[in-house]
Amino acid sequence: MKKWLTICAAIILVFTMAACGNKTTNNGTEGATKAPESTPSENNETLEQITLKFFSALADRSNGMGKIEQAIIDSYMQENPNVKIEVEALQDEPYKAKAKVYASTESLPDIMQSWGQPSFIKPLIDSGLLLELNSADFESSGFIAGSTDGFSQDGKLYGLPRNTDFLVLYYNKKMFDDNGISVPTTVSDLVEVSKQFRAKGINPITTNAMEGWSLPIWFEYAQQRTSGDFNKVDAVLNGEGTFSGDADFLAAAQSILDLADVKAFADGFLTADYGTSRNLFGQGQAAMYIMGNWEAGLATDENFPAEFRDNVGAISYPTSDKGKASDLAAWFGGGYSISKSTKHPEEAVKFMQYFFKPENWAKQLWQTGSGTPAQKFDEFLTGEESALQKGLVDVFGSTTSASNTPFHDLGTDEYKTKVMDAHQKLFGKSISPEDFLKELDAAVALLP
Amino acid sequence: MHKLLSNRRTIFALVAPGLFLFLFMVCFPIMMSAYYGMTDWRGIGSYQFVGLDNYMKILFNDPVFWRSLMNALLLLAATLLLQHPIALLFSILVTNAGRFEKLFRTIFFIPAVISIVVTSKMWVSVFHPNYGVLNKFLTAVGLESWKQDWLGDPSIAIWCVIFVIMWQGFGYALLLYYAGLQGIPKDLYEAAELDGAGRVKLYTKVVIPLLTPMVRVAVVIAVTACLKQMETIFLMTNGGPINTTQFIGNYLYKTAFTSSLYGYGNAISVIFVIVCLIITVIMNRAFKKDVGEF
User: Where are the transmembrane segments (chain B) (predicted)?
Assistant: First the structure.
């Protein structure tokens, strides 16, 4: 009897331990919203209950783009009570890490944020994890010509672009005025202005150098301003030439070092992540901020003092005799893709059609000043845009040449990490321009 | 009961669940890791077998890995040579603090109960070159020339990070020694006093030798914590600037999940396991000596 008791006890022990290890149901999705508890109408009772998992990299669900995304999801659920959309949202880098885990276990959420850049989307397409979309389904969305190219492979469409992105130099007008410094228009001005701010004990420029992805785009600007051509980098990536031994690339790297030499980069530059650098600028602790146009919301973010919001402006990267302000580092960035293994492909496509109706994403994004859509939005111009938004429209409207996809995103993740590491070293002054170019070549050598 | 436990079947039935879990959740993943470490798997899609290439590269051609390992050893040295002696000293002081004993015990243990996310982010703010309390304080007391970009300067960032990790673990180490001190019978103190031992002699000849078992536990915990350090690093610097504060756990994570080199990441984890095993063997050897009994 005792023996059996012991054996039973052992079995119970196993089960209790197994219970401890049970996968907890993931309801910790930030900002996840439950479907409104409306009583289904008679029609809906016959409809199948559908749950779509939606994975987003817009972690802040109460501000900017994340808020709009959530609002559209909520209104869709209200109009379609049989559909429940479960949102999981993470910050950029954790998002990408988790997306890889989902991909490697072939359990992608039904709809996920994707980037129309080879480093992100190519492995997913190559592994057959994304649903092919029919571009005719989205004709009425009015996507800008060329904006879906990054999401296409072999003529097939695997995702839809959400934003038009370009890198600009934000500046705090008040800090410039108070110190009697004028906004830089040329690259050499930028060095001079940085020197002046430093002399007054003010941080000149900040960006999210800890994550590091803004640095290669910055370098592309520097490179364009010395050579007058954005395509030079792409040529190297296509096997035509190298970074090392090219006078233009060397001069570009040197121009970054010139900035480093006058301490143009804010204190703690290399350890400032996205939030830290944004705060540093927004709280008036740095005079300039290198970041994408998606930060148009800086002018309306109430977390920052009014004197900042009223004084924030944006210009294209300072020019040179070869590179003009209209040469813009611009590309089509984030968007959405649908998992091939989704149980409800039709509903997912239907939701995407709803999401990209011009009056939904494009209109709301523009009119809240949260960014620039990848769809036509001229009909939604109100004339009441913030000065910052108008400045950004001016910058974008004048574009004569664009960089397209940032070059660190044109390869594998390993290549990307190497490129960003090399840039961190250059900006941190712990490498010579020559060695920097050599490291870039070593990274390019990793490309298939 | 004795009869029952001598029955082989019963023993097996009792041990099997634990053994099964151990094999399934510890040994099996390590073996899988060793296997994936021999591939060029990128997390998605197919992969090729590359033999020992990854392992060779880590051992002979990966300065970041060695830097991470050195940082772990540096942290270990700092923990054993600074944090623990101080924790021991303070545990003795707390034990003798009379009516303030409870108060001090609580105060010292506070950092250990606050989430690491909170304390790490707090220290990031303290060290911030512009609005950080530390630089502000230095300015206030006229030591402006001492101001630093604490976490951004590659030559000092590692020391700042090590300091924070020691600060976070201090309460725990103190509590271990404190518990050890409570376990030493009071009459031993009295006996030593009657025999004419002074304060210093009492501690060096009686108390500390009797604390040896606790020192062992504390050291083992410290060694493991130092080697697998990841969360504070991830939250404070993510190994930066330029990998100067990199630790193996974080490097492994970055390699696998940021660079998508799962094969290589797995190889790092296997080598990491081997390093841990070697250190465990060394520790066991070192602790083989007899300890004081009472």
Answer: 12-36, 72-94, 106-124, 156-181, 261-282
Query: What architecture is the B61-286 domain classified under in CATH?
Result: Orthogonal Bundle (1.10)
Domains belonging to chain A, first-starting first, are: 49-161+334-373 (3.40.190.10), 167-330+386-444 (3.40.190.10)
pLDDT tens digits, one per residue of A98-140:
898 898 888 999 999 999 888 889 889 998 999 999 999 999 9
Is A279 touching B (CB cutoff 8 A)? Answer: no
Separation CA B276–CA B227 (nearest Å):
8
Q: Which of B4, B43, B237 is facing A2, going by the closest CB pair?
A: B4
**Closest chain B CA to residue A422:** B242
Residue range A277-334, pLDDT digits in tens? 999 999 999 999 999 998 888 888 889 999 999 999 999 999 999 999 989 999 987 8
Going from the C-alpha of A413 to that of each of A177, A273, A419, B257, B267, the distances in angstroms are 43, 19, 10, 9, 18
Domain boundaries, chain B: 61-286
Pairs across A and B, CB distance < 8 A: 104
Cβ-based contacts of B257 with chain A (< 8 Å): 97, 100-101
Yes or no, beta carbons of B260 and A412 under 8 Å apart: yes
- Side chain identity at B51, as an amino acid letter? G
Q: What tens digit of pLDDT does each residue of B132-157 get? A: 999 999 999 999 889 888 998 888 99
> How many residues appear in chain B?
294
Mean per-residue pLDDT over chain A, rounded = 87
Spatial separation of the C-alpha atoms in residues A144 and A146, rounded to whole Å: 6
Q: Are strands A203-206 and A286-292 parallel, antiparallel or unpaired?
A: parallel
Name the residue in chain B with its Cα closest to that of A4: B10
Residues of A in contact with B42 (CB under 8 A): 123, 412-413
